[in-house]
Amino acid sequence: MHEVIVRALRYEAPGVLSLELAPTNGKLLPPFEPGAHVDLHLPGGIMRQYSLCGDPNDTSRYRVGIRSVSGGQSSQFVHRKLRPGEILKISTPRNNFPLIDADRYLFVAGGIGVTPLIPMMQAASARNKPWTLLYCNKRDADAPFLDEIRALGGNLSLHSSQAGTRLDVQQRLGPVEENTVVYCCGPEGLMTAVEEATAEWPADTVRFEWFTPRSRPADEVSGSFEVVCEQSGLTVTVPPEKTVLEALNDAGIPIPCSCQQGICGTCEVRVIDGEVDHRDSILSSSERAANQTMMTCVSRAKGARLVLDI
Ligand code: FES
């Protein structure tokens, strides 16, 4: 955990503020790669993950962008109460959305979903890799960080329902583009549309970052199963009403956790045996098929037993 001071709060677009967070000890913050996020701990036990959207080459400060969400505890606190000078705690950065090497990049953002993509566009420009951002907002005037993105020198394509320039996802992303990697972050409707449109793209060339958990089937059933903890030698029964994380915690085997929604990756453990019913919003289809890790806060067993490396 790192203690930081809110050095600045900046208006970025309607309903969007950015926070500049600097270490209180005068040292540098931990390094991070494009796509990383931190847990932001606010007064009153409020905690939420936010993507780092500042310059990875400058760890004298971090920047996060926060959209005001109706009923969202953390965003409402930031927008209504937080002031420069306040001391907060943040976690060490984690990255479930790393920028892999490619000849070119196609970024797709919906609103505040642009935040993890900003350091990626910056890195792509620095490596002389061509990139395009398909940037979707209700109105172009609502697009956060627009001037900054324009200055990065890529190919920017703005889409808004109000201007009648809504993105035709199937038409734009359906055809496979050679040696191109797609990074997408935004609301569930956009993410799902991109996922469906890119079904023919090669494995792992289309990557997603979910800010909220993806919807689960309403009729999803959760059964009981056993978890064998290889390191401790304990076997724990996970009842239908508990998560693996909760059952292990009850049995005295604490697993680090944060979001408890399958979107941050903190509770990931290695799977030794047994087939996982993956319910997280992090692992790609090939990572799920590999069955090597699971997020214990949401995922379960397909069969009667899992053996985990804990
Ligand atoms: S605690 Fe965040 S994915 Fe499990």
What does this structure look like?
This protein folds into 3 domains: 2-90, Translation factors (Elongation Factor Tu (Ef-tu), domain 3); 104-209, Rossmann fold (3-Layer(aba) Sandwich); 225-308, Beta-grasp domain (Ubiquitin-like (UB roll)), CATH 3.10.20.30. The chain is an alpha/beta fold and 310 residues long. The chain has helices at residues 73-80, 117-126, 146-151, 169-173, 188-197, 244-250, 285-290, and strands at residues 2-13, 16-23, 37-42, 46-51, 62-67, 87-90, 104-110, 131-137, 155-160, 180-185, 206-209, 225-229, 235-238, 268-273, 276-277, 293-295, 300-301, 305-308. The chain has a 6-stranded antiparallel sheet, with helices on one face. A 5-stranded parallel sheet has the order 9-8-7-10-11, with helices on both faces. The protein is 17% helix and 32% strand. The radius of gyration is 20 Å and the shape is globular. The longest helix has 10 residues, at 117-126. FE2/S2 (inorganic) cluster binds at residues 257-260, 262-267, 280, 295, 297.
Which descriptors apply to this entry?
310 residues; five-stranded parallel beta sheet; Ubiquitin-like (UB roll); 3 domains; alpha/beta; 17% helix; 18 strands; Rossmann fold; Elongation Factor Tu (Ef-tu), domain 3; 32% strand; 7 helices; binds FE2/S2 (inorganic) cluster; six-stranded antiparallel beta sheet
